[in-house]
Amino acid sequence: MRRVGQVTVAGAFLLLGGVGCTAEAQSGSTAGATPTPTVSRQDIRVQVVPDKVQGGATRSVRVRAFCPVPQGGTDYRATARSDAFTGVVTLTQPPPASPAASSTPVTTAAPSPEVRGFALVSEKTKPGSYQVEVKCEGTNDTGKGTLTVTAKPKPTVTIVPKPTRTHVVPTKAPRAGGGGTAAGGPMDEPSGIPGGVTVVALLAAAAGGIAFARHRSKAR
Questions:
Q1: Is the distance from CB of 76 to CB of 95 less than 8 angstroms?
Q2: CA quadruple 16, 22, 28, 30: dihedral positive or negative?
Q3: What is the distance between the terminal CA atoms of the chain, rounded to a whole angstrom?
Q4: Which residue, 118, 121, 132, 151, shows the most beta carbons closer than 10 Å to its own?
Q5: Domain boundaries, the chain
Q6: pTM
């Protein structure tokens, strides 16, 4: 009986020890686990050049978007849309720039990946600010830019003043011409006798004087 009791007690200790080890192992594995970080996706950078145009006519602007490079065989491009555009614009990767010919190699940093394209602003677009939304097709990243449309300036109207008429009031009576009211004419006679009568009287007096002089000379 004593041996049976010892064996029973020993079995109980072993069972309790096994349960304790299992619990410690489970608690150790839970404590050492690292949580998976959650990374929020940021909007891509979008540029509109120029970002301000004048309304009233069709304008062309360039849209640039810095999309991440997609993995696999997906084409590297994006689409841009805005209420100011005449339609949806496809943005593609620009062609690589050819290096300049030089004997000394120049090491330059790799340019940031980007896609670009040209959009037409409708002439009927009203003045205001418009959002330009871009979506990268390979990664579904998105971003926004802003385009401002200003009002068309009104034409300047030049008002020419009408010429004013001036009335000149003479301070002296104008001199008459060569007619009867000319200086020395009949109007200048203080006696009021017509000029023709005066001339006839003078001629008659002169003729009488001459006749009297001749008669006197004959009498001598």
A1: no
A2: negative
A3: 228
A4: 132
A5: 46-95+111-150
A6: 0.50
